Input
Amino acid sequence: MTTQESIRRRPGGRSERVRKAVLAAVVDLLPEHGVDQLTVAQVAARAGVHETSIRRRWGTRESLILQALLGASEQHLPIPDTGSVRNDLVEFLSSLISYLGTPFGRSVAEALAIAKSAPDRSTAFQEYWHARSNEARVMFDRAVERGEITDSTDPHLIFQALVAPLEFQLLLTGETPDARLAGELTDLILNGLKPTHQKPSGMATCAVSVASSEQSNK
Output
């Protein structure tokens, strides 16, 4: 068998298969054990690989979990490009609500909520949050270019304002947010971001009225 034939039969090769198996194992095990109890040994057993292979590739347990979370987010929470900022945000938040309704999505939200209390996890989860926020920024950048929102918009602040209520409701009540919130939150935020045209001042308005009155009396 030639090298080219081997590559065609094994797309990505063993290294890629191991990577996918390990990250899939994290996704499977995280809802069962939680961030605190999940171990590299458990992941290795589920993935069918040696624990040393995982540590050699990802270094720390926290780095492994971070990469699994980012990969799952890219799969379940893609960034829409519908041509409209409202449609983009409604579609994204709808996906997020569905995601939070899954065992894995719920475990991620819970892990993010308590990350600050565990220094060994805090940095990894901050990286996760910043990465997701940076990926979502393109929706707001496109909206500014289309003139849908003001160019003074802080994308990271708006992203937090949209996402935080959904995760807060999940953590506070234990219930998955209602699907209607996708549209309601979007409209609530966008109403404050729409470009406003400068209105004439009170004196300017009065002057226009006087001028119009004088013109009609001639």
User: Anything to note?
Assistant: The longest helix spans residues 119-145. The two ends are 99 Å apart (CA to CA). The chain has one domain: 10-190.
